Fold:
Amino acid sequence: MRPLPRRGLRAFALAALAATAATAGCADVEGLDSEGDLGTVHAPQSLWKNIRPEPPGPDQKPGTATVVPGLAKVPGLSMRGVNALDVLRADLTAAGAGDGGTGRLVDPRAAQRLALCTQAVDGGPRCPVRPGVLHDLTGNGREELITALDLDGRLSELRVYTVRDDGSIARILSRRAVLEGVEVAAEHLAVREPTSNPAYVSVSDYVWDDKAGIMNLAQLTLDSCPDPNGASGPCGPAGAA
Structure:
């Protein structure tokens, strides 16, 4: 698989190199030799090292493909004749019932937001479901369905679905996120999210895991936000990718 294109993060790379060099007792990194004495290097301090989370329950394990209940088998194994809103509505309704409104599987506001959608193919003008996008993420020649429900002006429920060999529709990626951007390239799907540093976004790169039958997180990186003049700058309406 070809990796997704990335804009260079020279500053971030230098910071990582500086940290590595400091740990090794070495400051032989270009751009750092003129900084003088960097002070005493301290070993990292582990916080709460005696406290560990409980293992997840059988229904809480992440990365599990789930057949969406209540949907008819797909003729011809093609998503092109499938209504994205119907798939998302069936999936989120089942997830809401499954987690009892706790928000573990889906935001509790999802049902209320879906109620804004009409029976029109696109859900009507007030429907907060994003238009479905078809793209082959599994590499088997069949297109997957990518869509999202916007919960408010910031947070969204992102979902990716595939058609199995038996015609059933299964969810292969579920992500609640602030979608600064979503990109597809070959068999990769990248989710761009804001960080606490306004000059950067985090990029989660998901790729198809044939053995697990899901889209798995393969890489997590930082990417700079370009300004209109092409230089790195804060993310925002004018500069966000």
Observations:
- The longest helix spans residues 84-99.
